[in-house]
Specification:
heterotrimer, A alpha+beta (154), B alpha+beta (285), C alpha+beta (818), B: 285 residues, alpha+beta, 5-stranded antiparallel β-sheet, 4-stranded antiparallel β-sheet, 12 helices, globular, C: 818 residues, 7-stranded mixed β-sheet, 5-stranded mixed β-sheet, 22 helices, 28 strands, 28% helix, 23% strand
């Protein structure tokens, strides 16, 4: 066991973890942050995407011990005082989700995209979220949601 | 899925890392960004007793100017490499190829040195390092040594690094004036590894090609240089016809694999087509 | 000309309401099965066969049992007497079902089959202990090739069958009386085109891996499962395990996609239940993606031999279809019925005089197949739309002209087809004309000619798919005639609450489709209640006790109509009470906008909410009227619904590399009266992505030993955002006349229609190169080989088994499809 201390969605935690524990398993099983989900074994699907230290990462491909001392933001930490994050709102407005399983990771990836490129072209949006698989939407409405947020912030 | 159990050490300096690796024994595994290693562990394709995480060794991170070369710390993330001013100025080929690696999340965690030390022949950075004649700097119990790119990649997933060595930095010679470059990647879906890719560097002189260097991705168990193409391009016109003729040599000396993405003969064909495209683009023709 | 029928102006139906179900999904406050933790819960890990076909000679679990945290280890023998066989709902005469154990007993028949289960305190401990289970196998020859499998003397998948053929299902229009004898068409044909098409094996690849939690309660169990079919599962779990049905509760909480992939009773559900009952503890099992890809059922996998006959003027006369359908190792719930569902769709929108369909279901040592989005109909649509293009090419006709010449004209509806179905309505002309205009067909044809003329390395191809499909599964009497063990009705009930709010209970359980939103729109209109005040209850057999679940684009066309019928009963009940309260004659009332009004007496009205409250009080009701407006209805459709449309694809083909890129994709779908255009568009987008993925990207490949080569998302290549274009979607509206809403299904249309449009586009681009087929998925390598004709377009590394060993040569000896 290794002791780690980190902040998740604004709350500080200190826990003992096995070194092999993935960040996503730590979030889900030790912290009960089940909003972040696991979709694959090979870091292809991106469903587990969270923000670690200001950057999007696939939490199934980060060990919890690697996040020691870090600051994690999950899908559960971006709504504030009952006000949705603009990307969450845009996903709703643009019907950018159906079953919703990829949605937590997709929203976190889309936020990260706009942080680095506030006015992306459609191609840049599509390339920016290519690490996140969605089986329901065909991506078109996700692209629209990102465009809506990018447009609104102008 | 979750990995089998292992011990974990996170050294904070190169010397600590080297001694941690030495004391961890032969079944230790060095982890850089973990973007290739962690999936392998999760699928239980590897059972290291100890994982030596280099993520907290700050001296392995960052890019610096060292006169006639830039030095990229092995633990510099792909994302930092792509956006680094020195890389963009002196080795834009690296920035361009790195931007095609995996996806944004993986580029945030994955590292330049980690990808090179992993030495997957379908990885994009080996051919680039070869074309740029990079030098690999390794540290081990007996000190530091430099390994030429041409000697670094030895076989499938195998490099010249000894088991007790870690890759610490990569020296990228500054190219000087007149050079231009292009990385031409071919894959089936955006996320996938390269089926074949070509890194081209061209130095123009008076409308013709003075010197060219061409690196090939996934055309052998290691990345390799297309030497026959380079010879044919030296002194050739920077024309589509001349470049096309030179590119016909692209598959010479290659031993590509056959897999789900393509049989060897298709890869050989792609090497020729993509080499032509890469050199044309590098020449801005 | 216009296909838009008059329909009443309503407040909610037709509005693009944003979804009610989104909030918890976009904030991570979800109820996926794997999120669930129960006190005392233990965890399962499953040891899966690494062999495609083998006898299990010994299993030693001693070491595993001694590992930390391990509570128990079970093997097939432990449950041999109790596990029963996984159910199959399709049992035509003569079908051979060798049985389907959940945990292998004595023999394994595909890689990934469950061999042993470890139960431990934590999931990690359970997974670790799998490595302590020692299994010895005696390898048997793997049966992987369908054509080889049915030859005399072939190795048998199952020792208790006489052949690897599970069934042969045939239809012939002469014998059925729905058309002329096929032999007449074949012998009198002026033109005959034969082709062999390969429907490669696909993996549904829902994003949420399957997960099951079972809690034993007294003699019964409560199961939470990532399933499309909580109601069917309840009944069949009870039957399979001998538990009284009333003791079984099944809950489908948030379910992360299905696409048919969660439509069966799974071995894992049975195993989890067995273990929970044995230990009398709650048990959870969640599969990894790798396990899911190799053991959750696959889809498609057919060899299609198609013969079309026509007159020289292009009039089609006969269609002869012979399928080999790979069942995999076992028959799952709908597996053998999937290709048969296509039997009625190969003739599609065309007026064939004669038709024959013969399907043979074959066992192989591969993962079982069952429904995947479209289930039988994509396969049929692909074959007919591909061969129409081949016929057009043979005749030298424009492929659209050939279709126009042969399709059912708008004024000919209702039309009974050569397959015996009656299509109620359709307007193929309108959808096609709209699609052609939207894509700019003539301009693209000009560009194509120019590119051909200048021998541009980037060639342009235009692909057509004018499709229909049958959905809204299904009229019970038809299912009965097809030897299904179930009906096709759906149930709904409506509960009027004291405060005027409404609960709607449906047996159609959603997993991403938007039922909560769309069904509330229907009820809002039918009862005149605010959309916001309507709550949908579904997915729990305790609170929504009756239903047949979600698949086959049935939720709206069947489940939605059940809701309409229930709402009508509510209104009828309310009318009696309204008359009483208004002191008017019932016949003098009219119901409009949520209120009953006395005709000719404008001031005399009462709203539904007021009636609901008065009913709740029960103080002043007419004599003999119960104090309840609640109503339920079970609706059995009279007919399928028949969505149709025209899909057009403009494809760029890089002839130097074989790389293909969709330039433009336009579809005009006619799904009748739209309830929620926003949701419809989403369904179409997602359907297109999956149909296009079949054409271009996806395939489950087995090696010569029967290992799944595409066992992770690294190799099973789902398209990402960068691999797909933005689609142009539009609609025509030809209301269905077989249901009161005029609706048709939309969930599968995009998938069914798009695949042949994409392949036709690539083939069209490459006609000048002598190409007349490219096998799916049309990888760059295959396209390149097709152009350069160097060899058959097999995928490297696929060995000889990727398609049951099928090649794509034509059987007429000319114009070979490479």
């Amino acid at each position: 066991m290794t002791k780690i201390s980190l902040t998740v969605d604004g709350v500080a935690y200190t826990d003992d973890v096995e070194p092999r524990t993935l960040l996503v398993h730590y979030l889900r099983e030790q912290l009960g942050k089940v909003g972040t989900v696991v979709g694959c074994d090979t870091s292809n699907c991106g469903a587990c995407t969270v923000d670690l230290g200001g950057q999007s990462v696939k939490s199934c491909t980060v060990l919890a011990v690697q996040a020691d001392g870090g600051e994690v933001t999950t899908i559960e930490g971006i709504e504030h005082d009952g006000v949705l994050d603009p990307m969450q709102q845009a996903f709703h407005e643009n019907h950018a989700l159906q079953c919703g399983y990829c949605t937590p990771g997709m929203i976190m990836a889309c936020r990260d995209l706009l942080k680095n490129n506030p006015k992306p072209s459609e191609d840049e949006i599509r390339e920016g979220i290519e690490g996140n698989l969605c089986r329901c939407t065909g991506y078109q409405n996700i692209v629209r949601a990102v465009q809506a947020v990018a447009g609104a912030s102008s | 899925m979750i990995s089998a159990s292992f011990d974990y050490v996170a050294p904070t300096s190169i010397s600590e890392a080297v001694s941690a690796l030495a004391s961890a024994g032969e079944d230790a595994k060095v982890m850089a960004g973990g973007q290739s290693l962690i999936p392998v562990l999760r699928l239980r394709l590897a059972y290291p007793t100890t994982v030596v995480d280099l993520g907290r060794v700050d001296e392995l991170k960052g890019v610096r100017d060292d006169g006639d070369a830039i030095v990229i710390g092995a633990m510099t993330s792909h994302d930092d490499v792509m956006h680094d001013a020195l890389v963009q100025q002196h080795a834009s080929l690296i920035a361009q190829a790195t931007a095609t690696v995996a996806d944004p999340q993986v580029r945030h965690r994955g590292t330049f040195g980690g990808a090179l030390a992993h030495a997957d022949p379908a990885g994009d950075l080996g051919a680039v390092a070869l074309a740029l004649d990079c030098e690999f700097v390794a540290s081990g119990p007996s000190g530091e040594r430099r390994i030429a790119a041409a000697d670094f990649f030895q076989d499938y997933l195998t490099t010249a690094l000894a088991e007790d060595e870690i890759l610490t930095s990569i020296r990228v010679p500054k190219l000087g004036d007149g050079w231009s470059s292009h990385y031409e990647k071919f894959n089936r879906v955006a996320q996938a590894w390269s089926i074949v890719a070509v890194a081209a560097l061209v130095k123009r002189s008076n409308g013709s090609i003075g010197e060219a260097r061409v690196g090939l991705t996934n055309m052998a168990p290691t990345p390799l240089r297309a030497r026959a193409v380079e010879s044919a391009l030296a002194g050739a016109d920077a024309s589509a016809e001349a470049i096309g003729t030179a590119a016909e040599h692209a598959a010479e000396g290659t031993t590509p694999s056959s897999d789900l993405s393509g049989k060897a003969d298709y890869r050989e064909h792609l090497a020729r087509v993509l080499t032509k495209r890469a050199v044309l683009a590098a020449c801005n023709v | 000309m216009t296909a838009v029928e008059d329909r009443p102006v309503t407040a909610e139906i037709g509005q693009s309401r944003k979804r009610k179900e989104d909030y918890h999904l976009i904030t991570g406050r979800t109820t996926w099965t794997d999120n669930m933790n129960l006190p005392g819960m233990v965890h399962l890990a499953i040891l899966r066969s690494p062999m495609a076909h083998a006898k299990i000679t010994s299993i030693n679990t001693d070491e595993a049992k001694g590992r930390p945290g391990v509570i128990a280890v079970y093997i097939g023998q432990d449950f041999a007497e109790t596990q029963g066989n996984l159910p199959c709902a399709f049992a035509p005469e003569g079908l051979v079902n060798p049985g389907a154990p959940s945990l292998a007993v004595g023999q394994v028949n595909h890689v990934g089959e469950a061999v042993a289960v470890v139960v431990a305190r934590t999931k990690v401990e359970a997974q670790d202990a799998l490595e302590g289970v020692e299994v010895e196998y005696e390898q048997l020859p793997a049966v992987l090739n369908m054509e080889e499998a049915i030859k005399d003397g072939a190795d048998l998948v199952h020792p208790n069958t006489e052949s690897n053929r599970s069934y042969t299902w045939a239809f012939e229009s002469g014998a059925a009386g729905s058309g002329e004898p096929i032999e007449d068409a074949l012998s009198n044909a002026e033109v005959t085109v034969k082709r062999r098409f390969i429907q490669q094996r696909l993996i549904p690849a829902f994003m949420e891996p399957r997960s099951t939690v079972v809690q034993p309660i007294g003699e019964g169990v409560t199961m939470w499962s990532a399933t499309q079919i909580p109601h069917v599962l309840r009944t069949l779990l009870a039957a399979t395990l001998g538990i009284a049905e009333q003791k079984v509760r099944v809950v489908a909480p948030d379910v992360g996609g299905g696409f048919g992939g969660k439509i069966v009773v799974t071995p894992e559900e049975v195993i989890t239940t067995l273990v929970a009952r044995k230990l009398n503890k709650p048990v959870k099992y969640t599969e990894s993606r790798s396990e899911s890809l190799m053991s959750a059922h696959h889809g498609r996998d057919q060899i299609q031999d198609i013969t079309i006959t026509a007159k020289k003027d292009g009039t089609v006369t006969g269609l002869d279809v012979h399928l080999l359908a790979d069942m995999g190792a076992y028959l799952r719930l709908f597996g053998p019925s999937v290709p048969v569902l296509g039997a009625f769709m190969f003739n599609s929108i065309y007026k064939f005089a004669a038709y024959r369909f013969v399907c043979e279901g074959i066992f192989t040592n591969k993962t079982a197949t069952d429904a995947y989005r479209g289930a039988g109909r994509p396969e049929a649509t692909f074959a007919i739309e591909r061969i129409m293009d081949e016929l057009a090419n043979e005749l030298g006709m424009d492929p659209m002209d050939l279709r126009r010449k042969n399709w059912i004209k708008h004024e000919e509806f209702p039309f009974t087809t050569v397959a015996g179905l009656t299509y109620d309505t359709g307007n193929y002309e309108a959808a096609t004309d709209k699609a052609l205009a939207l894509i700019g067909w003539d301009e693209l044809r000009r560009e194509q000619a120019e590119r051909r003329e200048r021998k541009d390395p980037i060639q342009l191809g235009l692909g057509i798919s004018t499709f229909t499909e049958m959905c809204g599964l299904a009229p019970s009497r038809i299912l009965g005639s097809l030897a299904f063990g179930a009906g096709g009705w759906e149930h709904a009930s409506i509960r009027m609450l004291a405060t005027g709010k409404v609960e709607v209970v449906t047996g159609s359980s959603a997993h991403g489709q938007g039922h909560e939103t769309a069904f509330a729109q229907i009820v809002a209109d039918k009862l005149g209640v605010a959309w916001e005040d309507i709550e949908l209850i579904h997915g729990d057999t305790q609170s929504s006790p009756k239903g047949l679940d979600t698949y086959g684009s049935r939720s709206l066309a069947v489940g939605g109509i059940a809701i309409v019928k229930a709402a009508e009963k509510v209104v009828a009940k309310a009318q009696k009470i309204a008359a009483h309260l208004l002191e008017a004659d019932e016949d003098d009332l009219e119901f409009e906008g949520g209120s009953f009004k006395v005709k000719g007496s404008p001031g005399s009205t009462i709203a539904m909410g007021e009636i609901a409250f008065a009913t709740f009080l029960g103080h002043n009701l007419p004599d003999g009227v119960e104090p309840s407006l609640d109503s339920d209805a079970t609706y059995d459709p009279e007919n399928f619904s028949f969505p149709h449309g025209t899909h057009l694809c403009a494809m760029e083909v890089d002839t130097d590399t074989g790389f293909t890129k969709i330039r433009k994709y336009v579809c005009v779908d006619d799904i009748g009266t739209p309830i929620n255009p926003l949701i419809i568009e989403g369904q179409v987008h997602g359907g297109l992505a999956q149909g296009i993925a079949q054409a271009m990207f996806e395939e489950a490949v087995y090696d010569e030993a029967g290992n799944l080569t595409t066992g992770t998302f690294v190799d099973y290549t789902l398209p990402s955002s960068s691999d797909l274009p933005s689609f142009t979607t539009a609609r025509t509206e030809t209301a269905s006349t077989t249901n009161p809403l005029g609706v048709k299904g939309v969930g599968e249309a995009g998938t069914i229609a798009s695949t042949p449009a994409v392949v036709n586009a690539v083939v069209d681009a490459l006609r000048p190169y002598g190409v007349d087929d490219v096998q799916m998925p049309m990888t760059p390598e295959r396209v390149w080989r097709a152009i350069h004709g160097s060899e058959k377009s097999e995928r490297a590394g696929a060995g000889t088994t990727a398609y049951g060993g099928a090649s794509t040569t034509t059987s007429d000896g000319e114009g070979g499809a490479l």
